[in-house]
Amino acid sequence: MRESNQSERTDTIINYRTDGTKEFEVLTKNGLKSGNGFYFDQNENIVGFKHYEKDTLNGYGLILNKDTFRPKYLYETNNGKRDGVMIEFYENGVIKSFRSADIFNDSQNIKFHENGAIKMIGQTKKGRGNGTVYYFDENGILEETIEYENGNVKK
Q1: The domain containing residue 132 runs over which residues?
Q2: Which Pfam families does the entry mention (predicted)?
């Protein structure tokens, strides 16, 4: 086994807006984006990030509400594409919806009322409602159950 004498080169890529404020910053290792890349508002507050591995988007990203700095979307990327977990939040930070894949694939889909109570549990097939979907009132009490097949109500 040989040890490498090469040292790792690190650098930073910074993108600026036309007004000169920083918009995005990410570290590089040996010329490849690596780690979290951060988005900034015009006051240089962090308003989101996305994760890179060897110049490819892999891992979780977060978009913050620009007024409250609370989460707006938490998403997963794999091999440069947004897929996997996607969580959407209300302005107050409560989870609004959760799905386990992008909207065009098979997925579990869960929605919540703004008070945090469960609103809907369902699943999709190729992005369309499929199977039993459960709907709940604002107290989390089951109100209705509907069967879907390829996005249409099953009769």
Answers
A1: 94-155
A2: MORN_2 (PF07661)
CA distance 136 to 8: 54
Per-residue pLDDT of the chain (155 residues; tens, 9 = 90+): 555 556 889 999 999 999 999 999 999 999 999 999 999 999 999 999 999 999 999 999 999 999 999 999 999 999 988 878 899 999 999 999 998 866 667 788 999 999 999 999 998 888 788 899 999 999 999 999 999 988 889 87
Q: Positive or negative, the Cα torsion across 117, 123, 124, 129?
A: negative
* Residue at 87 is within a domain: no
- 108 Cβ partners below 8 Å, 6+ apart? 98, 99, 100, 121, 122, 123
